[in-house]
Amino acid sequence: MTEMTTDIGTGTAARVEDLHRQYGRGTAAVRALRGVSVAFVPGTFTAVMGPSGSGKTTLLHCLAGMDRPTRGSVWWGDAEVSRLPERRLAQLRRSRVGFVFQAFNLMPAMTVAQNVELPGRLAGKRPDRGQVLDALARVGLAGRERHRPGQLSGGQQQRVAIARALVSRPQVLFADEPTGALDRATGHEVLALLRSGVDRDGGTCVMVTHDPVAAGYADRVLLLADGVVVDEFDRPTTARVVERLSRLGGGAR
Ligand SMILES: Nc1ncnc2c1ncn2[C@@H]1O[C@H](COP(=O)(O)OP(=O)(O)OP(=O)(O)O)[C@@H](O)[C@H]1O
From the CA of 219, how far away is ligand 1's center (Å)? Predict the structure, then answer.
């Protein structure tokens, strides 16, 4: 397997350069990422795939400013995130990137609207009701703002999480297995929403997934193995993704 890199150009929504992330030290050290360079062009949807333990979540967390690289750099546009002090990074993260988790991570005691408002409140901003309602309408949940997450289906809860991630109009939306807890039909709704955020709103989306069907919604697939990018291709179809994953020998998991 040869290590591949993506050309690093200007005008990217996000990029990493020679990214390394090591956990622990000495004999217990795990080298989760071993020199990843990749760029994400505005208005594109990328699926990150690879065997379990290949470094997908670590890459997403470093890209989203939720984890610090051991070596290398992370950029959002022309801002070098990896050099920022913690407080500035937290500020910038709230305005520049959104994150969607497999487990939704909603606050059960809060209403849907309060969940969507939460990141802004944490940033010390007064909630803009119009923006919150607009975000909920964009994910097809107009009229649900007073419900609690427990009153919604899994797919609806994930759509609230997407509204929460999109309300600040981030430059990039990162999603870690966003359909992992959903059935196929509900997963389709969430993927279609991510796709339309790119097509209709010109957003940029980077999604980790094990599912070749989910990857078929993306414009490009990046394949990781053992902490490096080993393959990438555009216009993925489910069949092509399965075939390229099988070349890795690890299958989809
Ligand atoms: N906080 C941590 N401390 C120690 N090791 C870690 C930590 N986080 C991840 N690792 C290790 O780093 C490697 C990459 O993990 P990562 O979660 O990025 O892989 P992944 O491709 O997302 O896996 P999966 O598909 O199973 O979610 C694994 O060997 C993992 O055990």
Answer: 25
